[in-house]
Amino acid sequence: MEAPRRGEMEKKPITLVILPGLDGTEVLFRPLLALLPAWIQPVVVCYPASGPNEYADLLEIVREKIAGLRSFIVLASSFSGPLSIMLAAAEPDRVQGLILSATFLRAPGRHLSSLRLIACGPLIWIMRTARRIPIWTLRRRDDPYRQAKAEIWRRVSARCLAKRTRAILGVDVRELSRKCEVPMLCIRFADDKVVPREFSEEILYYQPSAQMVAIPGDHFALWKNAACWTEAITRFAHGLKVIH
């Protein structure tokens, strides 16, 4: 086993609160959790598979689950970007930094019509079923990514995904992000068609001091290119002066 580097041995522990994407589970974060250095202590907040799933509802759930933490940084993936901004506004003394990964501050106008079309349970079920076909035909049954996606589909209903998709339609945290005073890292994936570059550019417009990192890969590079993703997160966390 490789010995810890000197910097890792001297670094004080930092709590990383992880807010998941639309699926609301920890599944796609497993490669990250396996690669994080010991001084970063992850806390993944999973979202309920039933009941209210508006951003305001999820904010209260997150605040309850982190009630015992004195200070922490937040990693928000995709759907959870606005939620992390809301959390920083609600807990300014405890949130020490934000990492916004492949996410947005609002649903841009030209994307709203397509979101409205898919924001219903039956249609999302059809889309999910159709998207399984390439995995079935191109990936072995024991392929870890195939197994991860299958687990998500078992745990998260189409109705739940539809609720969260509808929540995106009404979210807008642009002004909240402008007032955010904590260090911020914006990670975008170079070939991301789900959350393209313009979303990241809008984050930088409202928060010019934010750092920007581009990582090769599509929207699921958090799994497929976990090493680069973890490196960017770790580098940012290492540079923070966190109040313990």
Please give the radius of gyration in angstroms: 18 Å
Major sheet strand order: 2-1-3-4-5-6
Element pattern in H and E? HEHEHEHEHHHHHEHEHH
Pairing-aware structural class of the strands and helices?
alpha/beta
CATH superfamily of the domain at 8-107 and 172-239: Alpha/Beta hydrolase fold, catalytic domain
Can you characterise this structure?
It contains 12 helices and 6 strands. It is globular, with a radius of gyration of 18 Å. Strands 2-1-3-4-5-6 form a 6-stranded parallel beta sheet, sandwiched between helices. 49% of the residues lie in helices and 14% in strands. The protein has a domain of 168 residues: Rossmann fold (3-Layer(aba) Sandwich), CATH 3.40.50. It has 244 residues and is of the alpha/beta class. About 10% of the residues have low confidence.
Topology:
Blueprint: H1 6-10, E1 14-19, H2 30-35, E2 40-44, H3 55-65, E3 72-77, H4 81-90, E4 95-101, H5 109-118, H6 121-138, H7 144-155, H8 158-170, H9 174-179, E5 184-189, H10 197-206, E6 211-215, H11 221-224, H12 226-239
Parallel strand pairs: 1-2, 1-3, 3-4, 4-5, 5-6
